[in-house]
Amino acid sequence: MRFQANRDVLSDAVSFAVKLLPQRTTLPILSGVLIRSTDSGISLASFDYEVSAQTEIAAEVQEPGVILVSGRLLADIVSKLPNAPVQFATDEGKISVDCGSAHFTLLSMPVEEYPTLPSVDQPAGLVPGDAFAEAVAQVGVAASRDDVTPVITGVQLEIADNVLSLVATDRYRVAVREIDWDGSAGVTEATALVPARTLQEIGRTLGHASTIQVAIQNNDDRELIAFTADQKTVTSLLIKGNFPPVKRLFPESVDHYAVLNTGDLIEATRRVQIVLEREAALRFSFSSEGLTLEAIGSEQAQASESIDALLTGQDTVVSLKPQFLLDGLSSVHSEFVRISFTKTDNPNKPGPVLITSQTSREQAGSDNYKYLLQPNLLLR
């Protein structure tokens, strides 16, 4: 095999191919990047049986062929090459990489041992790239990081009525975001539970595209989903199991709420939480005079701060984990935020607080993003 490619284009393609590879693998063959050259250009791919990444770029191909090379090593090399065309050539199991005055020789890995790459034949629909990336970032923070319960380490994608809903929970909070879904390719109703870490990387990588093509497929008991944009495709196995029906936890309406400046609340929370011990909660006291945040860290340090808040309803005190609150506030993406206080059947147990956007102090924002956070029990 012999080809020449633009350094920047090649570096971007290799970086994309290795981004989703595991840092450590029990099978060294899975750490490789498969490079295939044809008359039309070259393709690069990686696959670890759960996630695959495939992309195509233009190149001057003198001799078609296929090679398998250590992915992270190649990424490190290509990213540091001088600004000149990159020439690849193979000779008796070795790969030479030449760029300007730089020369590298790499061992080729056995191509015949590499697994067959997954493929998805039929698209399911289209989503706007920027909206998808934003939605994944907003919802992904609420997914569980505890692999003991795999089903809640994913983000549930639910397609219905030309809307794609993304839902995530870690039992302490629930995040939901809705975006437009173009089902003209044929799929108007479907669900898919995608690993959150994979979906977040997809959002960062493909979010700059105008649209992202999504496809869902069942192959021999292996359900997978594919995302394609700008000559890049990522596939992921779906998580098996039933995602909890957490969307029903959201109330249809709440008439007891406070409206605050989002930035003011974020900064005050960050300041007051400094004195807290790990996993401790902040006390939030809402009244007609505003909001007071209180932190009882230890005998050596305590903190409090008051900020403006427009309260509708009776005075309320809730205890919230600051980082969970900050995750929701940072995802609202509006100048003001509405914090609504829900009710439970037990008058002694506070209901979850609902965080939504607020266009102004008087006008509610779009309800396509919602974040439900369970308070801690108050310590009297």
- What's the story with the biggest beta sheet? 9 strands, antiparallel
If you consult CATH, what is the topology of the largest domain?
DNA Polymerase III, Chain A, domain 2
Q: Largest sheet, order of strands side by side?
A: 14-11-12-13-26-25-24-18-22
The average pLDDT score comes to 92
Oligomer: single chain
Summarize the structure.
The protein is built from six helices and 26 strands. With 380 residues, it is of the alpha+beta class. It folds into three domains: 2-113, DNA Polymerase III, Chain A, domain 2; 125-248, DNA Polymerase III, subunit A, domain 2 (DNA Polymerase III, Chain A, domain 2); 252-373, DNA Polymerase III, Chain A, domain 2, CATH 3.10.150.
Report on this structure:
The chain has six helices and 26 strands. The chain has 380 residues and is α+β, with helices and mostly antiparallel strands. The chain has three domains: 2-113, DNA Polymerase III, Chain A, domain 2 (Roll); 125-248, DNA Polymerase III, Chain A, domain 2 (Roll), CATH 3.10.150; 252-373, DNA Polymerase III, subunit A, domain 2 (DNA Polymerase III, Chain A, domain 2), CATH 3.10.150.10. The protein has a nine-stranded antiparallel β-sheet. It has an eight-stranded antiparallel β-sheet with strand order 6-2-3-4-17-16-15-10. A five-stranded antiparallel β-sheet has the order 5-1-7-8-9. β2 and β3 (41-47) form a beta hairpin. α1 (7-19) runs antiparallel to α2 (71-79) and α5 packs antiparallel against α6 (322-330). It is elongated. The mean pLDDT is 92.
